[in-house]
């Protein structure tokens, strides 16, 4: 047990300050010499000044290698996904919307590019979006992770607005260790295997460590879990209209044509044969009018719920003491990741889908425009290969001068990240047009392109049969039209740093310490889409143009710690920390950011801390230089006669009519065709971060630490784009002409045979004055105690979000700083249709109890995700459209209402409409229980066995989630069982 002296309190406070979230409980964060009350100087995340203790550190979450092993997780991204401060972030559980297979961390739900990721205190390479792919960082070499729960732009520069993740590798590994872990879901899928080998030597002057890791993650299919096997769980799987989410683009086709004098959209009756390959088709009787309630395509089963992934990494780290006071360090990393996203077969539709009346397979014998078809025997996939190289070297040491010791370091880092994406199951627009043109049957009974007088034989042209259902497509047809676009993305970073620090002079309360430094960094990147993609020749795929750009910067910074009081009445200590950073960017100019931190201990056991920090985020390469690319966001057209806005608002109906939309128009495509792109005039985001809290470590309960911190983050000039839904609503619901100017409609029907569909919606990057604001409270309780039956540790870590929304915290219905109507506080309200997940839980909490006795260990962890509510009006629309009122009860509150707000036409006056129907659904609070046991054998082999989601807790149904009813912030249904072994030599 610790003694009740200043060192004891320091250590206990360090534990409390660094205590991790439930599954990740940190070890003591200070180094103590055996048998002596001495603590060495160390540098902690959030400060460059080396200290003799952690008593005045900012809120830092520490996750040790032992904590990671206890979690049963084997990747950096999976570990960070479950900490209480992480929000909705991309990972392998995101399929559509994450076709590159990246893994992110999103502290405070601010966005992944507002969370800075460091390795050993140095920046990790980002992609062109400005965010780090955590899958490029190997887990095996990690000694601990430190998550700073505060802004730190004055210390680290751009991106450190909502927090910092600093991953620290082992420096004193001696010997060799091999380990493996095997895991699988109880459904028999999602198998994950990990193998690591680490060798090292640590001597008096030289240390070397080499770590190699191989990881393979197998897929989980959407169809293998009930919650993701249909577009909306609880609705018929094939409803493509009336609020359903099945696709209207089906393997039985849709064709705007005339049959028996009736003009309409026809499809092949699924009980009929239709048209056969290499035969002139006259089977018009096999076709019927398309019914959106029964004929939609259920795309969900063939999507991945968990992407397959394979990673190989090699990490080398070495240090050598050149002299007693100078050390050379170097590191090298190679990481290769391959992954695959899989979606339903590529839909074929749009203007190129014009079918000639003289096509041998066309039973309607008329020219058809606006046809659509989905060849389900041609899988659509995105195979990603990501290669990361990183090289770094530094010199560090100390010297004596002017009667004081100076600590210094200089370093250089080079990082390169290249992503190659091969897209399979896509089609060449020009060849599709040719294959759907005139065709004939030759003397050998084989269908040929062109006419008998002018046959087309180039590239093996084969007429395309869209009228025979899934079996009407042959391999020869696919071979002619299929393309595999290859896209390349690369980012590089050169980073050079220099720092020097010392104790300047002594005040009555202690020494004044300071560090000054400089950093020079160059970043550049590009995306190179396939030439066919650039030319818009990949049918129904998002067209894209290359992105290329970069910038350089010089930064100068300083930090000082000033002790103001010590051992005074009601002031055991009082300390002020100041830091500032000047950043000179080549593309937008200069920015200066400072921070001020106060640490006050009225008594030895209680630390009260407060900080005020200025922050910034420079625009990323894509935000500045991305060419205009196509996007397909899910959205509801307010002019569709079955939309809630159209039904309930006469002003909407009038505006849609004025725009030329038919009063019988029903939206056919559930996704808008939008264009996004960069903007070289975008300016940096500016942020203010405030933190106030305390840490209490009482003498009367040894090894107990309690910390509570309130935080507030305000981000001005937020960089982003307006959502497609907000632009459409701004035009037709709110009546703003500036939004209407960004919308183009197809009144010809060439796009998909449905005149009036939105064919182009422009949403370019911009600064938003209104910005973002986050406010909340972090709580951590950590307690260790010894008994005759072992050592126990309990840790409870909780993040409570109090506000998430527009800057200034306007109430719902008030105007924000951009002149838009605010949605108010969004905490606890799930963002609808977010492909990367829209979870906004008010509380995320973890509780762990661990036990150790000699060679035995065990732990139990509870992860709590608070309840959320979501918009459930789509279910009401479906129930009404299907004439099945009982489906309304899928919503937990189908009769809910709320006040709706809109601008009075032609003015900025906000008009309130009370008691508007607004059905909601509650995603109930969810608790996952994990358990693990371990044993160290006499021959120095450690075995671990564990079960994640011990009680098989199902995620709540999320009807507003993207593509199915599963919100990826929750765990995939099923238990994960794992077995691990490691042996040290």
UniProtKB/TrEMBL annotation:
Chief site of localization: membrane
Q: Which Gene3D superfamilies match?
A: TonB-dependent receptor, beta-barrel domain (2.40.170.20), TonB-dependent receptor, plug domain (2.170.130.10)
Q: Which protein, by its recorded name, is this?
A: Iron complex outermembrane receptor protein
The signal peptide annotation in the UniProt record is: 1-31
Membrane topology label:
Multi-pass membrane protein
Is Signal among the key words of this record? yes
Alphabetical list of InterPro entries matching this protein: Beta-barrel_TonB, Beta-barrel_TonB_sf, Plug_dom, Plug_dom_sf, TonB-dep_rcpt-like
Every copy of the TonB-dependent receptor-like beta-barrel domain together lies at 374-950
User: Which UniProt key words apply to this protein?
Assistant: Cell outer membrane, Membrane, Receptor, Signal, TonB box, Transmembrane, Transmembrane beta strand, Transport
């Amino acid at each position: 047990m610790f003694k009740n002296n200043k060192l004891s309190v320091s250590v206990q406070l360090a534990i409390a300050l660094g205590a991790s979230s439930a599954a990740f409980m940190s070890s003591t964060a200070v180094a103590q010499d055996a048998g002596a009350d001495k603590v060495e100087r160390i540098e902690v995340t959030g400060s460059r000044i080396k200290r003799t203790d952690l008593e005045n550190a900012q809120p830092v979450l520490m996750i040790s290698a032992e904590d990671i092993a206890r979690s049963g997780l084997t990747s950096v991204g999976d570990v960070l996904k479950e900490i209480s401060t992480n929000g909705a972030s991309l990972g392998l559980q995101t399929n559509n919307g994450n076709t590159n297979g990246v893994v992110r961390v999103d502290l405070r739900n601010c966005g992944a590019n507002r969370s800075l990721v460091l390795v050993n205190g140095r920046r990790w390479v980002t992609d062109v979006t400005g965010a780090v792919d955590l899958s490029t960082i190997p887990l095996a070499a990690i000694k601990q992770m430190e998550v700073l729960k505060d802004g730190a732009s004055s210390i680290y520069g751009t991106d450190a607005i909502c927090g910092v993740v600093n991953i620290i590798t082992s420096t004193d590994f001696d010997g060799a260790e091999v380990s493996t872990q095997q895991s699988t879901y109880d459904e028999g899928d999602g198998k994950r295997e990990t193998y690591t080998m680490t060798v090292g030597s640590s001597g008096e002057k030289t240390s070397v460590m080499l770590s190699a890791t191989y990881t393979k993650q197998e897929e989980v299919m959407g169809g293998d879990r009930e919650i993701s096997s249909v577009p909306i769980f609880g609705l018929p799987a094939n409803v493509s209209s009336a609020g359903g989410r099945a696709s209207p683009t089906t393997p039985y086709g849709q064709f705007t044509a005339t049959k028996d004098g009736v003009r309409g959209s026809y499809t092949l009756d699924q009980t009929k044969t239709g048209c056969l390959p290499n035969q002139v088709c006259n089977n018009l009787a096999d076709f019927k009018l398309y019914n959106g309630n029964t004929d939609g395509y259920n795309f969900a089963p063939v999507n991945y719920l968990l992407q397959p992934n394979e990673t190989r990494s090699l990490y080398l780290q070495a240090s050598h003491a050149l002299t007693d006071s100078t050390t050379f360090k170097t590191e090298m990393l190679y990481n290769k990741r391959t992954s695959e996203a899989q979606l339903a077969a590529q839909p074929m539709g749009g203007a190129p889908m014009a079918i000639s009346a003289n096509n041998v397979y066309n039973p309607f014998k008329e020219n058809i425009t606006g046809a659509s078809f989905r060849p389900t025997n041609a899988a659509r996939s995105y195979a990603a290969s990501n290669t990361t190289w990183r090289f770094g070297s530094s010199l560090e040491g100390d010297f004596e001068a002017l009667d004081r010791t100076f600590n210094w370091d200089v370093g250089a880092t080079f990082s390169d990240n290249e992503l190659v994406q091969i897209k399979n199951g896509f089609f060449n627009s020009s060849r599709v047009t040719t294959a759907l043109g005139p065709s004939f049957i030759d003397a050998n009974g084989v269908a040929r392109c062109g006419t008998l007088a002018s046959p087309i034989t180039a590239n093996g042209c084969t007429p395309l049969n869209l009228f025979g259902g899934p079996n009407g497509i042959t391999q020869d047809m696919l071979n002619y039209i299929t393309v595999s676009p290859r896209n390349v993305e690369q980012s590089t970073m050169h980073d050079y740093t220099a720092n020097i620090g010392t104790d300047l002079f002594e005040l009555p309360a202690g020494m004044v310490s300071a560090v000054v430094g400089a950093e020079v960094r160059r970043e550049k990147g590009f995306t190179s889409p396939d030439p066919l993609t650039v030319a818009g020749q990949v049918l129904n795929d998002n067209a894209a143009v290359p992105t290329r750009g970069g910038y350089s910067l010089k930064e100068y910074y300083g930090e000082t710690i000033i002790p103001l009081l010590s051992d005074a009445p009601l002031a055991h200590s009082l300390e002020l920390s100041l830091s500032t950073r000047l950043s000179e960017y080549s593309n937008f100019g200069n920015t200066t950011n400072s921070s001020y931190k106060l640490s006050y201990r009225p008594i030895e056991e209680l630390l009260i801390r407060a900080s005020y920090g200025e922050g910034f985020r420079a625009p990323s390469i894509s935000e500045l230089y991305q060419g205009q690319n196509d996007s397909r966001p899910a959205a509801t057209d307010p002019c569709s006669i079955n939309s809630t806005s159209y039904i309930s608002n006469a002003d909407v109906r009038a505006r849609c009519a004025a725009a030329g939309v038919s009063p019988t128009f029903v939206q056919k495509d559930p996704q808008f065709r939008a264009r996004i792109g960069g903007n070289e005039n975008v300016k940096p985001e500016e942020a203010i971060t405030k933190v106030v809290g305390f840490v209490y470590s009482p003498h009367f309960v040894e090894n107990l630490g309690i910390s509570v911190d309130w935080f507030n983050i305000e981000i001005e000039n937020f960089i982003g784009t307006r959502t497609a839904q907000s632009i459409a609503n701004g035009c037709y619901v709110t009546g703003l002409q500036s939004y209407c100017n960004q919308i183009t409609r197809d009144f010809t029907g060439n796009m998909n045979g449905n005149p009036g569909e939105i064919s182009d919606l422009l949403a370019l990057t911009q600064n938003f004055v209104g910005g973002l604001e986050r406010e909340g409270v972090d709580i951590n309780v950590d307690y260790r105690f010894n008994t005759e039956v072992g050592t126990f540790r309990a840790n409870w870590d909780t993040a409570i979000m109090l506000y998430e929304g527009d800057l200034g915290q306007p109430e719902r219905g008030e105007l924000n700083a951009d002149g838009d109507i605010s949605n108010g506080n969004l905490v606890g309200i799930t963002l609808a249709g977010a492909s990367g997940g829209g979870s906004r839980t008010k509380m995320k909490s973890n509780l762990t109890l661990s036990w150790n006795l000699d060679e035995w260990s065990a732990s139990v962890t509870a992860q709590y995700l608070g309840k959320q509510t979501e918009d459930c009006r789509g279910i009401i629309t479906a129930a009404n459209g299907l004439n099945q009122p009982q489906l309304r009860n899928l919503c937990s509150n189908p009769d809910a209402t709320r006040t709706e707000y809109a601008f009075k036409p032609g003015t900025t006056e906000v008009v309130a409409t009370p008691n508007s129907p607004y059905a909601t659904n509650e995603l109930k609070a969810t608790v996952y229980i994990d358990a693990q046991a371990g044993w160290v054998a006499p021959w120095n082999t450690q075995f671990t066995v564990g079960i994640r989601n011990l009680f098989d807790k199902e995620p709540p149904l999320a009807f507003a989630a993207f593509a199915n009813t599963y919100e990826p912030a929750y765990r995939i249904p099923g238990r994960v069982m794992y077995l691990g072994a490691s042996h040290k030599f």
